[in-house]
Input
Amino acid sequence: MRLNHIETSVRENTPRVWRANVDLGQTTLLVGRNATGKSMILTSIHSLSRMIAKKTRFDDANFVARFTDGAGEFEYSVIVRDKLVLSESVTSDGNVVLKRGPDGKGRIKAVAANDDRLDFQIPNNELAVVAKRDLIQHPFLEPLHAWAASTRFYRFNDFKRQFLVVREAGPGEPDPSDYDQSIGLYDHGLKKLGEQFKSTIIDDLTRIGYPTEDVGIMPLEDVKLPPEFGVAALGLYVKESDLGGPTRQLEMSDGMFRALALIIHAAYAELASVPSCIIVDDIGEGLDYERSTALIQLLMERASRKAIQLVMSTNDRFAMNAVPLDVWCGLRRTREGVETVTQKSHPDVFEQFKLTGLNNFDFFKTDFFEAKSANG
Output
């Protein structure tokens, strides 16, 4: 299931209200000046997915999310205030199949019972799409849960070199959606997927400008743990073809480690978990032009191979020039949030700019859409 549209707002009924209304494609690049709301939009999508997947408690929120899948159109809306659900509804192909109010009372379609208006009441601090999940009676909720569980959100700048792992036996697996677990995910991916996983990472690093012979995990000799731990701190290393020895994690540049970590997560996503949506905030930050461009192209190709939705944000000129204008979503500040400028919403603006022969970054730098979008 693919997210086509997201409406979100915070601080409603206050002077600090912020609203966004964004169309999304198979690949979307959010572009805007600092503080226009790029990260807030991506974080909102992530927050909605985590609410549905029960990975976080929800705070105040207003969402309308529209999806498409093989079965047709699907819309989910929810309003939360002070951790209480005020309203919630699900519409499938134009038919309301779930609706509830602030007292937790509502009606839902029950497929096996052949009842389109089955009454229910749940606690008013629970989501109905979670509390009423039932494969037999309410199977139409499953695609929404699959989307939520398989959405991956990464802040490119948050892949830090100090993310270390101590190898120790224990239950559970690393969370592939958690960028704090890049090292553990590599270790787990190698055990689960074998040499294909490792060779994919080596090929991807080489492609983006780090010609690589080997990648793996090794003790971090500079990190001394107390003797009572009884284990060593471990980190990633990369053996580049033109260097005599391995580059250890703590020796990597920020840009190199961020790229390596994201490549690990993206390779695992394709080879193991097949997420429906990958979100990357500030893509390419800290990389030079060639590597930033190559990394973005790599992600776009990987997403297209698996029909994965890819949503990225940037205000970096290298990233902008690497992504075609037809997948851009430009953001403009307004008094109450942001408005968007896309090729779909403002085709004339995009066509006029293309006639200038300038590169993509100039579309952003010269405020081409800022000057003309108000009048369409």
